Amino acid sequence: MTSLDSDDVIQMVPKRLPHDHPLADRTELMGNDLKLICAKPDCLSNPCLHGSTCTETYDGYECLCSVCSSGNQCQDKLLKDCSEIYASGERISGVYKICPGSNVEDKEPIDVYCNIDEDGGWLVFQRRQDGTVDFYQNWAAYKNGFGDLEAEFWLGNDIIHRITYQGNYTLRIYMVDLNGQSSTALYNNFRVANESEGYRLKDLTYNATSSNGGSIVLLKPTAFYNDLPPIQFSKNGNYILY
């Protein structure tokens, strides 16, 4: 059945008859089985959020949420990075689930380590501290990530690309040498290209080799440093060189 609404034609859908409807007790007309009436679709008002799918039911509607959202109307979505997690009130560093990307319905959630203790909201994508993880890995390993988020690890070039292409980020590199001396470097506009571009780093110069001291690499969506020359990634056979 259709209904005229202004200049539009609306396809009516079956809905359960409300208990307070005048026909609710007219069993001689409606029978004792499921009582339905024709009504405007509830999904017409787009009640489901963040790209979720609205499905009509006899009693209203149901929202089919994406993997990055939840709630009756999919109103609750995973945050996109550690700075948003910090802004939400979290104050304990550790592993959190985020869903980076501009279109939440097209994304998959990922686990990341957030450093919230120092200046709040930094996402760690590399940690080297005791040599328990071999960082001489092939291209596929660096693409997908390896190690343990609670210990030594590389987050993965695909994930780093996905995160850094959703906004402007500052790269922070914290290093400790064999004598226990530490240093920190900050770079702005940190962005990692996709695999087809060789995961190039843009607007940044950074070249590091393994040591027994330690290093931690973090990023945060702020930008204060300018005019940095581009870094170059290269492949040697099936291996990536740093």
Question: Can you characterise this structure?
Answer:
The chain has 242 residues and is mainly beta. Among the domains are: 40-77, Laminin (Ribbon), CATH 2.10.25; 125-240, Gamma Fibrinogen, chain A, domain 1 (Gamma Fibrinogen, Chain A, domain 1, Alpha-Beta Complex). Helices cover 10% and strands 34% of the residues. It contains 4 helices and 20 strands. It has helices at residues 27-30, 82-87, 139-144, 157-164; strands at 2-5, 8-11, 13-16, 36-39, 53-57, 60-64, 69-70, 76-77, 94-98, 110-115, 122-128, 146-147, 153-154, 170-176, 182-187, 191-192, 201-202, 214-220, 234-236, 239-241. The strands form 7 sheets. Strands 9, 10, 11, 12, 13, 14, 15 and 18 form an 8-stranded antiparallel beta sheet that branches. Strands 1-2 form a two-stranded antiparallel ribbon. A hairpin with an 8-residue loop joins strand 16 (191-192) and strand 17 (201-202). The longest helix has 8 residues, at 157-164. Mean pLDDT is 77; it is low at 207-214 and 222-242.
Topology:
Layout (H helix, E strand, L loop, with lengths): L1 E4 L2 E4 L1 E4 L10 H4 L5 E4 L13 E5 L2 E5 L4 E2 L5 E2 L4 H6 L6 E5 L11 E6 L6 E7 L10 H6 L1 E2 L5 E2 L2 H8 L5 E7 L5 E6 L3 E2 L8 E2 L11 E7 L13 E3 L2 E3 L1
Antiparallel strand pairs: 1-2, 3-4, 5-6, 7-8, 9-10, 10-11, 11-13, 11-18, 12-13, 14-15, 14-18, 16-17, 19-20
**Fraction of residues in β-strands:** 25-35%
Number of helices: 4
Could you list the spans in which at least 5 consecutive residues all have pLDDT below 50? 207-214, 222-242
Characterize the main sheet: 8 strands, antiparallel
CATH superfamily of the domain at 125-240: Gamma Fibrinogen, chain A, domain 1
The third-level CATH topology of the domain at 125-240 is Gamma Fibrinogen, Chain A, domain 1
Keywords: Disulfide bond, EGF-like domain, Glycoprotein, Secreted
Disulfide bonds: 65-74
Main location: secreted
Domain Fibrinogen C-terminal: 73-242
